[in-house]
Design goal:
The structure is a single chain. This protein is of the alpha/beta class. The protein folds into three domains: 29-126, Sandwich (Tumour Suppressor Smad4); 128-221, BRCT domain (Rossmann fold); 232-346, Nibrin, BRCT2 domain (Rossmann fold, 3-Layer(aba) Sandwich). It is built from seven helices and 23 strands. Strands 3-2-12-11-8-9 form a six-stranded antiparallel beta sheet, with no helix packed on it. A five-stranded mixed beta sheet has the order 5-4-6-7-10, with no helix packed on it. A hairpin with a 2-residue loop joins strand 8 (91-93) and strand 9 (96-97). The radius of gyration is 27 Å and the shape is elongated. 35% of the residues are buried. It comes from Photinus pyralis (Common eastern firefly).
Length: 365
């Protein structure tokens, strides 16, 4: 057994009061030319690059078929155009020779060849869709600038095409938990400073493993892994989470769906104890109120339902257990209405601008 004391707001709830900034950048990519030797030349938005044998941005010096000034690349927010500026031996896209001084748009995956020898590059678009959680105000401006430089898309909420989550500390928010399920890198703000430096220097990108944020949660120990596990995508399979309020369900449904489950709210989809006990296709998970003050506003019907439900030996599930189940990749103890905890007590922590609730599992398994 163990004793667990932690702020519920750090286990999902505080994210409901978060004030992360809105969409800041309207493009979402930069581009790379990858040489046959694996060397990468990064192309940033709103920039032009010269290609040639001397005094150019992309220098190709060991190929006698390359002209001193061979071609030009022009990058906008969402595309790259290439133009042969009068080279002797030509520029080719997918083996098709370009007309001199005529601009052509490169498509993702295209092969670009300069001259007649082996100066061959693969063109790739790199998409960055980044969301944040708990970023300090003094770091927001720099992060925004980095996203602008990289052509990244900075979004307020988790989306299915997010491929990064940036945080100051590893807190179990909806965004972080979504990233854990999806196998998306979770990085600190320093990652993007170094990413930009590497791109500008055309050096290998920093390894995300070296930028994992420090974990500040009291529930997390050294045995917990945030690494991707495919099983998390079906962790809540055949489980139906029943939230007391529609607003609670709306905030959690995306996360639950991502882990293979479904959810409804009591006020739009009331269920009976018989329906739960006799349900064969799904296991019902009845959730506690997210806000302790909301309990006084429960309808008599819901109050009676919870009373009869717990009388049969089931327990209602605190919101924190969704986070615990996802992190530990197990529903044996967490989100299991039949698992008996010795004590589950809500305590109020006073003196906070936003009322926070301490969830204490005294002597829980």
């Amino acid at each position: 057994s163990f004793e667990l004391v932690g702020y519920v707001n750090s286990l999902l709830l505080y994210i409901w009061f978060s004030n992360d900034y809105e969409l800041l950048v309207n493009n979402k990519m930069h581009f790379i030319l990858i040489g046959k030797d694996g060397a990468k030349f990064y192309l940033l938005p709103n920039t032009s690059y010269t290609v040639g044998r001397k005094d150019c941005d992309l220098l190709i010096v060991r190929d006698e078929s390359i002209s001193r000034r061979h071609a030009e690349l022009v990058v906008t927010n969402d595309k790259v155009s290439i133009m042969d500026v009068g080279s002797r031996y030509g520029t080719f896209i997918n083996n098709t020779k370009l007309t001199i001084n005529a601009s052509s748009v490169l498509q993702d995956g295209a092969t670009v060849k300069f001259g007649m020898l082996q100066s061959i590059y693969k063109f790739q678009a790199v998409s960055i869709v980044n969301t944040t959680s708990g970023i300090k105000s003094e770091h927001k401006t720099q992060l925004k600038d980095n996203m602008v430089t990289l052509g990244g898309l900075l979004v307020q909420n988790w989306k299915k095409d997010c491929n990064y989550v940036t945080v100051e500390e590893m807190m179990l928010t909806v965004k972080v938990l979504s990233a854990v399920i999806a196998g998306v890198p979770i990085v600190n703000v320093s990652y993007w400073d170094d990413y930009v430096k590497c791109v500008k220097a055309h050096e290998p990108l920093p390894d995300v493993k070296n930028y994992v944020p420090k974990c500040s949660e009291v529930i997390i120990n050294d045995n917990i892994s945030f690494e991707y596990k495919e099983e998390r995508r079906e962790l809540f399979k055949n489980k139906l989470f029943v939230f007391p309020k529609k607003s609670d369900n709306e905030k959690m449904v995306g996360l639950i769906n991502l882990a293979g489950g479904d959810s409804v709210s009591w006020d739009t989809h009331p269920v009976s104890v018989d329906e739960i006990v006799n349900g064969k296709s799904k296991e019902y998970i009845v959730m506690q109120m997210s806000n302790i003050h909301d309990s006084i506003q429960l309808s008599q019907l819901l109050t009676d339902f919870v009373h009869n439900y717990t009388k049969l030996g089931y327990r209602t599930i605190p919101l924190a257990e969704i986070a615990l189940a996802i992190i530990k990749c197990s529903c044996i103890k967490h989100c299991n209405p039949k698992f008996k905890r010795k004590t589950c007590v809500f305590k109020t922590c006073t003196g906070q601008v936003i009322c926070r609730y301490v969830l204490a599992f005294h002597g829980c398994n």
